[in-house]
Amino acid sequence: MSKSILRAGIVLLSLTVAACSSSGTLQRTQSSNEPIRSNSVAALTVTSASDTESLEAAEELRSRLFGSLVSQGLFDQVVPPSKPADYELSVALSGISEVSQGARIFLGVLAGSNKLSANVKLVDKADGSVTRAFIVGGESASHPMSSENGMGDAIREASSKIVQALR
Known about the structure:
Rossmann fold
């Protein structure tokens, strides 16, 4: 009997810990062994549905990517799509699901987590070829007491996966 209680406790602890952290996913749909040219410039486009939460998520992801793509050394500069660039990086957000803090407080883990996914494509503007294409996902923690349960955490995870896939 004590072993079954111990096992149940371990399972419960595992589920609780899993609900306390955010995570991201990456699925490559087209990859290239060709590295991104050094000192290159990328024109970044982030699109989403027109509802408020999608537009806010797109703006936050755009802001994160502008900073991280340069600071991680992937591009020398990231510019808006209207500026000349060596590459075009298109990020199309979809599947945005935001859980309110009220629902999280009342329903706890059962409220679920904040989620988003994005189709990402990197095009070499010199010849128009798609050099990278992939799908990323970001998911926040679902536990109400976690410090990683906001939509910003799901966006951070997706941004991190985009940078990882472009390396």
